[in-house]
UniProtKB/TrEMBL annotation:
Record flagged with keyword Signal: yes
SUPFAM superfamilies: EGF/Laminin (SSF57196)
Gene Ontology CC: basement membrane
Keyword field contains Disulfide bond: yes
Organism of provenance: Dimorphilus gyrociliatus
Signal peptide: none
Name of the protein described by the UniProt record: DgyrCDS11456
CDD domains reported for this sequence: EGF_Lam
Laminin N-terminal domain residues: 1-202
Domain of life according to the entry: Eukaryota
Length: 365
């Protein structure tokens, strides 16, 4: 999917040429050519090779910094797989860096390009990629007459074949914003010019969606499956916290699992202590139990109520009060006092509280 175009994509530039005459060397030494520029930001991403529309920076100062920034904001996190930049009128930079961010505030280098990597960026040209440094930016030499550059962030990375199962590589290709810093113009040029930028990627959905859709405000969000929720399917949906959220992979969708609240609540939370005690089978504890029930699974009658033997535990009348008993409905008192007991298990009870002071029970038979 070409992420450089779309209604939810915003593109900003720090410099643009409007109604000015720009002159540059033809083939470096064979004369001067001038033209009237009137470029737009849209020329960066219109992908019109036949029309050859070009974004052109303003004339750069003769002295001082010559950095021009191009910033792409995608509206949500995406996973970038490929970037291609086509230069125009032979006006590629002498040095440039692609940076990435996941919040639009903190930026880290994604890839360097330069005629002299060590001098301009203090990075060795090329560089050997190992599993220890596979999420570090590399620097490639940019050639004087190179009309385009291509960058695949997973290329040459040792774990790229198992990238779905590599948390570090998943983080490496995850961006919400891309920034391209054009740092120095080529000799003989006083501006930068780019005909097209193509950014290929996919919505970051953590393996729980195959597509993105627009919400009512026009923002992109994942069409989440596997009982997950959030713009990136980064959490389990309400009532599905019986085991911890995990990213979906090719081999395992890692779907979220519903808590068993015996139909007395549709709300629950995950507790790692319960999960460990259950040998990683169940870590959800129900909250806001209804119908006079309490317990991790709303399976115990609260104090003053009795188990109705005529109803299954999932029935709304599973727990009855003293008035029901007086009407002839015999119940079993399994409240066990204020701690809610163990549902007639006949074992010892450990009382535990979570960070939000929710009481949960661990029964030992």
């Amino acid at each position: 999917m070409d992420m450089s175009r779309g209604e939810s994509i915003s593109t900003r530039v720090s410099s643009i040429c409007k109604n000015k005459e720009i002159c540059y060397d033809i083939n470096d030494k064979n004369g001067i050519e001038c033209f009237q520029c009137n470029s737009t930001v849209e020329h960066l991403t219109d992908l019109e090779p036949r029309l050859r529309t070009c974004w052109i920076s303003d004339i750069l100062p003769k002295l001082g910094p010559k950095r021009v920034q191009l910033i792409f904001s995608f509206g949500k996190t995406i996973e970038v797989t490929y970037i291609k930049i086509n230069f125009c009128q032979n006006a590629q930079p002498d040095s440039m860096v692609i940076k990435k961010s996941v919040d639009g505030k903190r930026w880290v280098p994604f890839q360097y390009y330069s005629s002299d990597c060590r001098r301009n960026y203090k990075v060795e040209e090329g560089g050997k990629v190992t599993r220890d440094n596979e999420v570090q930016a590399l620097c490639h030499r940019i050639l004087p007459n190179e009309d385009s550059i291509s960058f695949s962030p997973l290329k040459f990375r040792p774990s790229s074949q198992q990238s779905d199962e590599s948390p570090s590589l998943n983080d490496w290709i995850t961006v919400s914003n891309l920034q391209i810093d054009l740092d120095n113009p080529k000799v003989g040029f006083n501006h930068y010019s780019i005909s097209d930028i193509k950014i290929v990627g996919r919505c970051k959905c953590n393996g729980h969606a195959s597509r993105c859709i627009q919400d009512k405000n026009g923002r992109l969000r994942c069409d989440c499956k596997h009982f997950t929720a959030g713009r990136d399917c980064e959490k389990c949906k309400t009532g599905y916290h019986d085991r911890p959220w995990a990213r979906g992979t090719r081999d395992n969708p890692n779907a979220c699992v519903a808590c068993n609240c015996n139909q007395h609540s549709n709300q629950c939370r995950f507790n790692p202590k319960l999960y460990a005690l259950s040998n990683q089978e169940s870590g959800g504890y129900c909250t806001n139990c209804q119908h006079n029930t309490i317990g991790n699974r709303c399976e115990v009658c609260k104090e003053g109520f009795y188990r109705n033997p005529r109803r299954k535990i999932i029935h709304r009348d599973a727990c009855i009060g003293t008035k029901d008993k007086e009407r002839g409905v015999e119940g079993v008192n399994n409240s066990g006092g204020s701690n809610g007991g163990c549902g007639g298990a006949g074992g010892d009870v450990d009382q535990n509280t979570t960070a939000d002071n929710h009481l949960f029970l661990v029964c030992h038979k």
